[in-house]
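User: Can you recover a sequence for this backbone? Please restate the input before giving your answer.

Assistant: Of course. Working from this structure:
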C-alpha cells in the first residue's frame, strides 16, 4: 500500500480496484506536446501519472501529442524524453506518438461520416466562429451541415488527397449547435495543413484536432485513468461523446479525471511564454538556471528528488490554488541539506592577517564533509598567516546583535582558532585593505582548550595560498513580482534585474575537482552546483541553487 498522502484520484483508483472496474489495471499516461521544454508544472503531472502507476502496480505511458506540426520539433521530443528520465521515471516500452495513430484516426473519421456523426464544413474560420454563438446565445447550424454522406466522404477523401488549400474545409463532429457547452457545438475534428510532420513527413496534409485525437489515443492504449488539468473539465463531454460514437471500433473507454494545475508564484507557467523569454533574449536559453523549465532547474542545481518531493508536498486537488515559490526552494534546501557535502568558499574576499602567525607557518585543520554524517569523513584545510574572509563577516562599527568580527572583537575561525581583531589598514578612500588580528594558540577546534573560552561568532575563511579563484553565478528569482503573469500585465516588465550576479569567489582546493552537476553546501552561503555545461576539468564554474534560508525581501 502506498505511503504517500491520499487524494481524490487515489480514492477513485482504490474504489475502481475494489469494484473491479478495470480488473485491477491502472494505466495512466503523460501526454506532452513536443512544442517546447517541460516546466515545473509538467513535473506535477509527471509525478502524479508515473507515481500512481508505481504505487498501484500499473503502467504509465509517455505519449507525444504531436498533431500540430507547425509548432513541434524532434529536438523537443528528445529533450522531453531526457527530462522525464532525469526526473526518475521509466515508461518501459510504453513510448507512443499520437502521430502513430493517424491512419486509425482517419479511418474512424470516415466511420463517423458514415454514421452521420461528422460532416465537411466549407465555411471560413470566421463564419464558423460567428455561427458558434456565445455562452448566452445558442449557435446556428452551418449551411453545410446536411451534406449527404456520399458528398462528405468524397470531400474528406479529397481533403486528405491534398486537393484543397489550407482553410478551405474542415471536418466537424455533428453534435448539437444549441448545446450549452460550446465544446459540443459541432467541434472541428480535422483541418487542412500543408505542413510536413516531423515523423510522418508529407504523408498527411490534414491533421486531427487535440480533442479528437486525445481520447482516441487514450482508448487505443487502454488507458484507465486519463488525468488532465481543470481547463479540460468542459471538454470531458466531448471526450466521452467521441468514444461513445466509436464504441463498436474501440472497446475501452478511459475515465477522464481533472485536477488543479500548478500555479507557482514568481514564475510564468506556459511554454508559449517561456519561449518569449528565450526569443527575446531575456534569459540565456531554455536551460538558463533562472527558468522554471526542468532543464533550467537542473542546471540551477535542483535534484530530481527535490522536485519529486515538491510534487508530493503540493498535493493534488480539484481546487485551483497558488503555491509559493518558497515551497519549491525549501524542497531543494531540504534535499541538499541532507545530501550535499559541505565545502568552504569566500565569495566577497577581504584579507585577514594573523600577526602572531609566522610567515611560513602552516597548520592543518579538519573540516567535516557533513555535520550529520561523520562516515563521510573530513578534509584538510590549511591555515596560514594570510587569509580571505567574507567582507560581510566584518563590521567596523558593529550594529546591535552583530557577533562576528569587529575592531577589538573575538570570533572563532571555523575549525581553527579564536582570533581577536587588532587593527585595520585602509586605502586613501577609506576602503578596508587588510584586517589584522592575533590568534590564541590554546583554542584550536577539537582540542580541550577550544571549550574553555566561548565566542559567539564563528566565521569561515580560506588561506590565500590554499584557495583558487573561480567564476560563481549568484542566481535569484527571475521575476520580482509574485504574479508576473496576471491579466493586464506583461510579465516581461516584471523581470528582477538582480536575478544573476557573476562574481569571482575563492574556493578550497578540494573543489577544483568538482564534477559537472556535483552539488555542495558552501558553508554559511547556500547550495551550489558545478555548472553542467561550463565546468571544465580543474576549472569548475558554480551556480547558486539557493541560499540557506529564504531571504527574499522584494
Ligand atoms: P503549456 O501551456 O505550458 O504548453 P500544456 O498543457 O499545453 O502546457 P502539454 O505539453 O500539452 O502542455 O502538457 C502535457 C501535460 O502536462 C498535460 O497533461 C497537462 O495537463 C500537464 N500540465 C501542463 N501544465 C501543467 C501545470 N501547470 N500543472 C499541472 N499539469 C500541467
Ligand atoms: Mg497541450
Ligand atoms: Mg499550451
Amino acid at each position: 500500500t502506498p505511503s504517500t498522502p491520499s487524494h481524490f484520484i487515489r480514492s477513485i483508483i482504490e474504489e475502481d480496484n475494489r469494484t473491479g472496474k478495470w480488473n485491477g489495471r491502472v494505466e495512466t499516461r503523460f501526454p506532452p506536446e513536443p512544442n517546447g521544454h517541460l516546466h515545473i508544472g509538467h513535473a506535477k503531472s509527471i509525478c502524479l501519472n508515473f507515481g500512481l502507476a508505481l504505487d498501484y502496480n500499473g503502467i504509465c505511458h509517455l505519449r507525444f501529442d504531436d498533431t500540430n506540426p507547425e509548432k513541434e520539433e524532434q529536438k523537443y521530443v528528445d529533450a522531453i524524453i531526457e527530462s522525464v528520465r532525469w526526473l526518475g521515471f521509466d515508461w518501459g516500452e510504453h513510448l507512443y506518438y499520437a502521430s502513430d495513430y493517424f491512419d486509425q484516426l482517419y479511418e474512424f473519421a470516415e466511420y463517423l461520416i458514415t454514421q452521420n456523426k461528422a460532416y465537411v464544413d466549407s465555411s471560413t474560420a470566421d463564419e464558423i466562429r460567428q455561427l458558434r454563438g456565445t455562452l448566452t446565445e445558442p449557435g446556428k447550424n452551418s449551411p453545410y451541415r446536411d451534406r449527404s454522406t456520399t458528398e462528405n466522404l468524397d470531400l474528406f477523401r479529397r481533403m486528405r488527397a491534398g486537393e484543397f488549400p489550407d482553410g478551405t474545409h474542415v471536418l466537424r463532429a455533428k453534435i448539437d449547435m444549441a448545446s450549452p457547452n460550446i465544446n459540443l457545438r459541432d467541434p472541428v475534428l480535422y483541418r487542412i495543413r500543408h505542413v510536413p510532420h516531423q515523423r510522418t513527413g508529407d504523408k498527411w496534409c490534414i491533421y486531427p484536432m487535440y480533442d479528437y485525437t486525445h481520447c482516441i489515443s487514450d482508448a487505443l492504449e487502454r488507458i484507465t485513468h486519463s488525468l488532465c488539468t481543470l481547463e479540460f473539465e468542459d471538454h470531458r463531454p466531448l471526450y466521452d461523446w467521441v468514444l461513445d460514437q466509436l464504441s463498436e471500433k474501440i472497446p475501452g473507454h478511459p475515465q477522464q479525471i481533472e485536477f488543479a494545475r500548478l500555479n507557482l508564484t514568481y514564475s510564468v507557467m506556459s511554454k508559449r511564454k517561456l519561449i518569449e523569454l528565450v526569443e527575446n533574449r531575456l534569459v540565456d536559453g531554455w536551460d538558463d538556471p533562472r527558468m522554471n523549465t526542468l532543464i533550467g532547474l537542473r542546471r540551477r542545481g535542483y535534484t530530481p528528488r527535490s522536485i519529486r518531493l515538491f510534487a508530493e508536498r503540493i498535493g493534488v486537488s480539484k481546487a485551483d490554488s497558488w503555491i509559493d515559490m518558497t515551497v519549491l526552494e525549501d524542497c531543494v534546501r531540504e534535499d541538499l541539506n541532507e545530501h550535499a557535502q559541505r565545502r568552504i568558499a569566500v565569495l566577497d574576499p577581504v584579507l585577514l592577517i594573523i600577526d602572531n602567525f609566522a610567515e611560513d607557518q602552516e597548520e592543518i585543520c579538519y573540516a567535516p564533509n557533513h555535520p550529520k554524517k561523520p562516515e563521510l569523513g573530513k578534509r584538510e584545510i590549511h591555515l596560514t598567516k594570510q587569509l580571505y574572509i567574507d567582507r560581510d563577516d566584518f563590521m567596523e562599527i558593529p550594529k546591535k546583535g552583530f557577533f562576528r568580527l569587529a575592531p577589538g572583537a573575538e570570533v572563532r575561525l571555523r575549525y581553527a582558532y579564536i582570533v581577536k581583531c587588532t587593527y585595520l589598514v585602509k586605502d586613501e578612500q577609506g576602503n578596508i585593505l587588510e584586517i589584522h588580528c592575533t590568534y590564541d594558540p590554546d583554542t584550536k577546534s577539537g582540542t580541550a582548550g577550544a571549550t574553555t573560552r566561548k565566542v559567539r561568532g564563528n566565521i569561515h575563511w580560506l588561506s590565500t595560498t590554499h584557495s583558487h579563484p573561480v567564476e560563481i553565478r549568484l542566481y535569484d528569482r527571475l521575476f520580482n513580482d509574485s504574479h508576473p503573469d496576471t491579466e493586464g500585465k506583461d510579465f516581461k516588465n516584471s523581470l528582477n534585474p538582480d536575478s544573476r550576479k557573476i562574481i569571482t569567489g575563492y574556493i578550497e582546493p578540494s573543489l577544483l575537482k568538482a564534477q559537472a552537476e556535483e552539488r555542495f553546501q558552501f558553508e554559511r552561503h547556500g547550495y551550489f552546483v558545478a555548472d553542467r555545461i561550463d565546468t571544465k576539468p580543474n576549472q569548475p564554474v558554480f551556480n547558486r541553487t539557493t541560499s540557506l534560508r529564504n531571504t527574499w525581501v522584494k
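That completes the design. The chain has a mean pLDDT of 96.
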